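PROTEIN DESIGN WORKSHEET
SECTION A - STRUCTURE
LENGTH: 247
TOKENS:
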């Protein structure tokens, strides 16, 4: 009954799933949100609940619609009766060259990367205030160094940076709001050529990919760092400050 509760959006795969597993091991109860990855979400929740019964609950829903986002928030709060942390991890990512951008692209990219974090914060802030909770937004180093042909995605992530800093002021002192800007942690799900991978690694001073555990450790730091709010921490091996970084 005393366990802290975390909502992780997009928690069925990749960084989201690693975050769920890490904090579950630390004793947190998890509300795992997913949209389409039902099979992975069920498998992960079954695995974790087998070790600690009723410690992970699933919430399915789209984050492209404000109405659907409100339902996700309501179900997440009802799952354990409270929230101590909101991790806005869900993120659509794909290129949108000028001349090809559609209304559907807007709803997908802006919806998941900017709109949903804002409205989830709005719908969840009361329970977070009661528990002196935290919000952590997954930004991107490309919010400040735009990626070619990804204008809509980078716009949304840039807005998320501003939102993080603004909400940190508005929700203080009860709720702290911070962001993480991952660099190359995992290769994209759409395969990259080996030459492209090598070119990316050349832009990283540490000359390697990060790990999903690096992100989980950074989230843990921000949850425990009681005097840190309104900050964006880059987890990118130094890529964002390297002189050879290319957009």
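SECTION B - SEQUENCE
RESIDUE ASSIGNMENT:
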């Amino acid at each position: 009954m005393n366990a802290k509760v975390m909502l992780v959006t997009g928690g069925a795969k990749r960084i989201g799933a690693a975050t769920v597993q890490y904090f579950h091991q630390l004793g947190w109860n998890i509300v795992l949100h997913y949209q389409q990855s039902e099979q992975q979400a069920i498998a992960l929740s079954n695995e974790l609940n087998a070790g600690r019964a009723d410690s992970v609950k699933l919430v399915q829903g789209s984050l492209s619609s404000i109405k659907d986002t409100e339902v996700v928030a309501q179900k997440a709060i009802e799952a354990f009766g409270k929230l101590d942390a909101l991790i806005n991890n869900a993120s659509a990512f794909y290129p949108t060259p000028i001349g090809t951008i559609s209304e559907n692209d807007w709803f997908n990219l802006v919806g998941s990367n900017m709109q949903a974090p804002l409205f989830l914060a709005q719908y969840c802030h009361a329970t977070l205030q009661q528990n002196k909770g935290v919000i952590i937004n997954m930004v991107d180093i490309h919010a400040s160094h735009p990626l070619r042909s990804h204008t809509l995605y980078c716009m949304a992530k840039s807005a998320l940076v501003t939102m993080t800093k603004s909400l940190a002021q508005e929700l203080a002192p009860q709720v702290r709001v911070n962001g993480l800007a991952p660099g190359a942690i995992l290769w994209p799900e759409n395969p990259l050529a080996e030459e492209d991978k090598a070119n990316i690694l050349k832009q990283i001073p540490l000359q390697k990919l990060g790990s999903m555990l690096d992100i989980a450790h950074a989230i843990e730091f921000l949850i425990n760092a009681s005097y840190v709010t309104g900050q964006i921490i880059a987890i990118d091996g130094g890529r964002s400050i390297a002189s050879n970084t290319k957009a």
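SECTION C - NOTES
The longest strand covers residues 176-182.
The chain has a mean pLDDT of 95.
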